[in-house]
């Protein structure tokens, strides 16, 4: 499918996503809403340098969408625009719009802090705070003024279970998070990101610093998390994209080249640039 086209997605607003997905073969869960995140003719500049060119795509609800492409192609730039993290960089500007659940994220009435509560982020390098496991998870709630013990306790258990870390951490909640393994730290960061129950979870190469066993655990977790969250993941690992995602977008030099069901994009890409990249001819 060419970048100028939108993927052909059938959506039933009343449907519930199934719990199975075989992305590599093209099988996928039916989304609740096919354009939950609508990126509309979006361009972005760092000062005088244009990083994104007229990106248009619809990202479906409660599915995993992967962004792939060579380094410097705009994947992470676009991801960070979805919760306006790039606003923190001086001299940036954009054209076009990003609409989440029918509301522009650039609506002047939207408070950016509230937006980021709705759109959580997990970074490439795990960044637990030098606090206990418990305090890492409840940090977003404490910042919001929530200190009720019963609420904090419930949030910690729910979030650690959601991040598949509860059984490993339940007896050491008040130990330093810095004593966890690398894979556990990344799952703790996921627990912290979902503590506020966001609608969307952004993941910027969440497994790049992990060993294969820890990577497999995070990938299994992503499959579980999409039952509740819409997930967008940036990855350089094309095998990971085939294992984890329902849909994949290929970017090159700041442009969206192709966006389609993951199985179709990898097995039968419609653009030669996509085929060249996934077969290792460049990138």
How would you sum up this structure, described in words?
Helix content is 32%, strand content 23%. By secondary structure, it is α/β, with parallel strands linked by helices. The strands form 2 sheets. The chain has a 6-stranded mixed beta sheet, sandwiched between helices. It has a 4-stranded antiparallel beta sheet with strand order 2-1-4-5, covered by helices on one side. It starts with 36 loop residues before the first strand and ends in a 5-residue tail after the last helix.
Outline the fold blueprint.
Layout: E1 37-46, E2 49-59, E3 64-68, H1 75-81, E4 92-100, E5 103-104, H2 112-118, E6 119-122, H3 133-143, H4 149-162, H5 166-169, H6 182-194, E7 200-204, H7 212-225, E8 230-234, H8 238-244, E9 247-252, E10 255-261, H9 262-267, H10 272-278
Parallel strand pairs: 3-8, 3-9, 6-7, 7-8
Antiparallel strand pairs: 1-2, 1-4, 4-5, 9-10
Helix pairs in contact: 3-4, 3-6, 4-6, 6-7
**Shape, principal axes of CA atoms:** globular
Question: In what range is the share of β-strand residues?
Answer: 15-25%
Largest sheet: 6 strands, mixed
Radius of gyration: 19 Å
Mean pLDDT: 88
Please provide the ordered H/E string of secondary-structure elements.
EEEHEEHEHHHHEHEHEEHH
State the main characteristics.
disordered N terminus, alpha/beta, six-stranded mixed β-sheet, 283 residues
What's the quick description here?
This protein is α/β, with parallel strands linked by helices and 283 residues long. A six-stranded mixed sheet has the order 6-7-8-3-9-10, with helices on both faces. Strands 2-1-4-5 form a four-stranded antiparallel sheet, with helices on one face.
